[in-house]
Amino acid sequence: MNPADLLSAMKRTVEQLAAFNEMAKALTSTLELREVLSLVMQKVSDLLQPRNWSLILQDERSGKLYFEIAVGEGAEALKSLQLSPGEGIAGTVFSTGTARLVDDVGGDPTFAPRFDKASAFRTRSILAVPLIARGRVLGIIELVNGPQDPLFTQDDLTTLTAIADYAAIAIENAKNFWRVQELTITDEHTGCYNARHLRAQLEHEVKRSQRFHHPLSLVFLDLDRFKHVNDTHGHVVGSALLKEVGELLISCSRQLDLVFRYGGDEFSLMLVETAPEGALTIARRIRDAFREQHFLQSQGLDIRLTASLGVATFPDHAHSAMDLIRAADFAMYAAKARGRDGVCLAEPLPAGPRPEPGEP
């Protein structure tokens, strides 16, 4: 190696060590899972600069793998997809716990082309590394195509493995912290999060939305004529019905979404990184699910319900977390006023300057 190449290699090593040190400090400064994941992916971007990259985790309920974070060309299409352990190169890495560096996916029998079809992106090379904590695979970091030359190198594999080692411990710690926290933020009757957690989480997500310039949507839902159910069948049946409503909302939501019982027969969904169009799609899916659902059949009943839903998005319809709650709530009552069993979008804010991050 000539002196110029040696100097360049030494400089690159120093930069990587500084980045790892910075990442270690950042990851140990928070137990918020979303912040941990954002920090990890920022370092992946800074150090390796892939064309596309994603962080894939396992849904503890279904066992399926989902794209917790996806960045790059066609990434939005991936966020709604899932894969099974063992499916594709990423799924194989998850099942085996062994990293893969694939120079040409066309010659690899484990490559799953359906993800390219969904995202309209051409994958040529993949670098995938497992996230392992206490001997258990939590997920995968997957890079697709290098910044100029599509191929990745052994140095890239070494760097990504080091990032994954830091990330896995931080993710495991954040998840354990979250499990303890859930005991105090869950509505005991429905299993959904409670209103206090909605307000706290919304404040946090609005700040995050300002920082990263991502949209944040909120859906408010009110059951139509729920009082009639209580008057006809009693409050015990009404409580059981609310529990099934919570289960229905969770089943209609995506992995990243949060479902809350706001109070009485009102529920809400927080949709991170979701623009108005996407939020309306989810709200309409929920409306249709209510139309098709037969509640409490396990108790020998067949109760039919509809719901009125309001949708609002930050920063399109609100300047703050409380404004977003008011906008979604107002839109929900507008849906009721239009005849119930419908979805209404909040009115956009007037044109003009908007508050900068940190302003009230």
From TrEMBL:
Residues in the signal sequence: none
Enzyme class (EC, first level): transferase
GO molecular function list: diguanylate cyclase activity
PROSITE patterns in the record: GGDEF
GGDEF domain sequence ranges: 214-348
Taxonomy, superkingdom: Bacteria
EC number: 2.7.7.65
Record's GO cellular component terms: plasma membrane
SUPFAM superfamilies the UniProt entry points to: GAF domain-like (SSF55781), Nucleotide cyclase (SSF55073)
GO biological process, one term: cell adhesion involved in single-species biofilm formation
PANTHER family xrefs: DIGUANYLATE CYCLASE DGCN, REGULATORY COMPONENTS OF SENSORY TRANSDUCTION SYSTEM
InterPro entries in alphabetical order: Diguanylate_Cyclase, GAF, GAF-like_dom_sf, GGDEF_dom, Nucleotide_cyclase, Rev_trsase/Diguanyl_cyclase
Protein name in UniProt: diguanylate cyclase
